[in-house]
Amino acid sequence: MLEFERSGLIEEACGVVGVVGHPEAASIAYLALHALQHRGQESVGIAAADGLRLRAVRRMGKVSEAISKDDLAGLPGRLAAGHVRYATAGESSLRNAQPLTVQLKFGSVAIAHNGNITNASTIRRELEARGSIFHTDVDTEVIAHLIARSEADSLDGALAEALRPLEGAYSLVVLSADAAYAVRDPRGVRPLSIGRLGDAWMIASETCALDLVRASWERDVEPGEMLRFGSDGTMLSSFPFEKRAPKPCIFELIYFARPDSVVFGRGVYETRVKMGERLARESAVEADCVIPVPDSGVPAAIGFARASRIPYELGLIRSHYVGRTFIEPTGSIRDFGVKLKLNPVRRLLEGKRVIIIDDSIVRGTTCKKLVTLVREAGAAEVHFRVASPPTMWPCYYGIDTPSRDQLIAANHELDAIREFIQADSLAYLSLEGLRDATGSQPGSAASDASFCEACLTGHYPAGIIESADRREAY
After folding, report:
1. Residue 362 vs residues 2, 146, 324, 394, 455: alpha-carbon distances, Å
2. Which of 247, 359, 405, 457 could make an SS bond with 187 (beta carbons 3.0 to 4.6 A apart)?
3. CATH code, domain carrying 395
4. What's the domain count of the chain?
5. Total H helices, total E strands in the chain
6. Residue whose C-alpha is closest to residue 236's, from 170, 152, 150, 154
């Protein structure tokens, strides 16, 4: 899935990190956020605590561009929390950047949130009716107000009390002056891992953030688990929420997580290779080469080529120096956006029967441009294969997806999609094949699956948000 197809449609969940017990906690958080940059590029924030005081810096932009050495120098302490954000629907502004910092009866608290609370709008209206004043558009502020209203005599108790009425998805890192908390919602929709860096603890949305700073992965935060990390190195675990059937997000494995991460106990790269292998067995076609849509289609294309014994080639070369915006000539170069991002290897493709592999199709407009690009490079045939089932429903749990009328697979049969993208053939990975590749439970019903497959099946395990009430996903 290419960046210009995802724009305004499907985007990454945000990323959170935590560091406890390291003398350069803020700097370690900064490095970890670099590894999570794919999960959000609009804003970045880091909060740090030294046992007495909590300080925070929030900036618009990417990690390396937004956070300076002076910023890090102003964040002393052995505890830190960080956040990279992608805003899905509301205002993209500094006031909505995280970690959100608030002053409570327990002292200063910073909250970094990945996910989306489906009943946040309802709770927000109730809180506003009782006098609460909100300063941001983010669901995270609902959590802060619920903590503030709690009558519990400790932050541990207030945090648990605040989270109990929430529906939807949340993976949280919460920082006080002398402790940090890691929490996952009872269904465990969004990922959250724990690692060790010497004597220090680390918390991160993905294990690639641990790898960057040479921290060892210990385990995932369990669905419904709340962990308290003390500044003295202690870790206390509790399960203060009603037990629910775990439903981690399948799209983390299909697309969002970095291939070098371990998510939900599964190696992302290996899982995507298996998806490609299964796709090859389900939709074989005679061809001369298999090429990926870089970079997201690479592991599945390797698996497809391996299983089909058709040579794997880098038929599309991606430019890594194109930002989200660029100056486009008016009408002078057809399909300029695709051409700027990708260039076909003409000598490799000329006269060949080519299979293009990608992770998913959203609107189909970019797929159509890619097929045209490969044909113009001289391909004799172009076949398109998708390493996931059709995306047919919007997500309400922390991923930005469009309404159904913008999803091509929700409104057109397979042959109509093939005709639209102008491919010689088109096939998706079956739901059964996806479940087999990801190790999901067998069964035909969506409710039988180990993962949340709502974007594929329309079965929502944690409720939905009405379109008029949709806020932002973090």
Report:
1. 10, 37, 18, 11, 11
2. 247
3. 3.40.50.2020
4. 2
5. 18, 21
6. 154
State the CATH number of the domain containing residue 199: 3.60.20.10
Which residues are CB-contacts of 396 (< 8 A; sequence separation ≥ 6)?
116, 118, 168, 454, 460, 462, 463, 464, 465, 470
| Cβ pair 386, 359 in contact under 8 A | yes
**Does 110 fall in a domain?**
yes
Do residues 352 and 402 share a domain?
Answer: yes
Q: Are 208 and 261 in contact (CB under 8 A)?
A: yes
Please check whether residue 348 is in contact with residue 326, taking contact to mean a CB–CB distance below 8 angstroms.
Answer: no
Q: Is residue 366 part of a domain?
A: yes
Indicate whether 126 pLDDT > 80.
Answer: yes
Please check whether residues 190 and 270 belong to one and the same domain.
Answer: no
Tell me, yes or no, whether 23 and 154 share the same domain: yes
The token pair at 389 is 């089932």
Instruction: Identify the H or E element spanning 382.
Output: strand 381-386
Residues 272 and 241 in one domain: no
Question: 341 is in which domain, residue-wise?
Answer: 266-467
Tokens standing for 77?
């302490």
pLDDT tens for each residue of 173-187: 999 999 999 999 999
**Structure tokens of 431?**
């739901």
> H or E stretch including 463?
none
Kindly list the catalytic residues.
14
First and final C-alpha spacing in the chain: 20
Burial code (b: 16+ CB inside 10 Å, e: under 16) for 101-123 equals bbeeebebbbbbbbbbbbbbbbb
255-264 per-position pLDDT tens digit: 999 999 999 9
Using the 3D structure, point to which of 213, 246, 279 is the last residue of a domain: 246
Q: Are residues 232 and 272 in the same domain?
A: no
Strands 193-197 and 216-220: antiparallel
The secondary structure of 250-266 as a DSSP string is HHIIIIIS-TT-EETTE
Q: Does residue 198 have a pLDDT over 70?
A: yes
Does residue 261 lie in a domain region? no
pLDDT digits (tens, 9 = 90+) for 215-227: 999 999 999 999 9
